[in-house]
Amino acid sequence: MASGFDRRVRLGVVGCADIARRRMLPAFAGVSEVDIVAVASRDSEKAGKLAADYGCEAVTGYEKLLGMDLDAVYVPLPAAHHAVWIERALRTGKHVLAEKPVTPSLEETADLVAQARECGLVLRENFLFPFHSQHHEVRRLVVGGAVGEVRSFEAAFTIPPRPSGDIRYRKDLAGGALLDVGVYPLKAAMLMLGPGLRVLGASLKVDSTYGVDVSGSVLLGAPGGVTAHLTFGMEHTYRANYTVWGSESHITVDRAYAPPVDLTPIVSLGGEEVVLEPDDQYTNAARSFVSAVRTGGPTSGESVELARLVDEVREAAR
Q1: N or C: which end of the chain has fewer CB within 10 A?
Q2: Would 19 be classed as within a structural domain?
Q3: Average pLDDT for consecutive 10-residue bins of the chain (318 residues)?
Q4: Are residues 137 and 274 in the same domain?
Q5: Predicted TM-score of the model (pTM)
Q6: Residue of 46, 100, 171, 187 with catalytic role
Q7: Residue 49 annotated among the catalytic residues of the structure
Q8: What DSSP designation does 21 have?
Q9: Is 21 exposed, middle or buried (0-12, 13-18, 19+ CB in 10 A)?
Q10: 298 DSSP assignment
């Protein structure tokens, strides 16, 4: 599809996952430059119920949706099913917003990013928190020297155990804590420390019942001798924060990854509170994707870089 078109983006949704229902469809509905055309599911009743909420077409089967006149698709399927449907969407000339991770595999992710670039299409991994203004403020403060020289970074994302039937415990669906919550601290380190990260060490605790990792810890190295310590898991109390430590001060962000849209964010700078305006990362992310589709925005290599770090974590943990 040619870039720079001036009509509304025609969007289809491949699957009726909870994240689509609760977060992304309401966000896309709030963006004036997009039309939600259709929602697909293998279950016609499920598709019908969700489609009715947005006045769009209900489609039974993902292949049928990809044959429709659409500009872009959103893929909120389990990670193990991403690669096949992302590739099919790209081959039909559609831009793709895929839930994280793009795929569970570095090789597959790199291949899909290369395909998107070759076709001039946008393939974006749906991390939402980077679109919240609190992280832009932290970057502004760090770049402005508010903490002095950055020495280290700490980040954590932990959640309580899920019900036993949750897909996060499904090895066949690429479940596990690393791909579900561990990628958030990794992405936060990329956001705050920049390129050139490498895994110095890692540990993963694998649950013998489910065969998936349920918690882990990672030590990263960054250029200039900066280090990052990351913690994640799904057998903990809830925790979602990060801290940038510098030579003169430090900055801490709580509620870092999924703050409610009406939350007044508070950034702690050396113990002093910096109160920010509420922000809606969900609508911001949806609007950014739609804008990239309309302008022919390039597909970045960040998804490949994250997949490389995930691969290194797995290797170090062995």
Answers
A1: C
A2: yes
A3: 70 96 97 97 96 97 97 97 98 98 98 97 98 98 97 98 94 97 98 97 97 98 97 98 98 97 97 96 98 92 98 97
A4: yes
A5: 0.96
A6: 100
A7: no
A8: I
A9: middle
A10: P
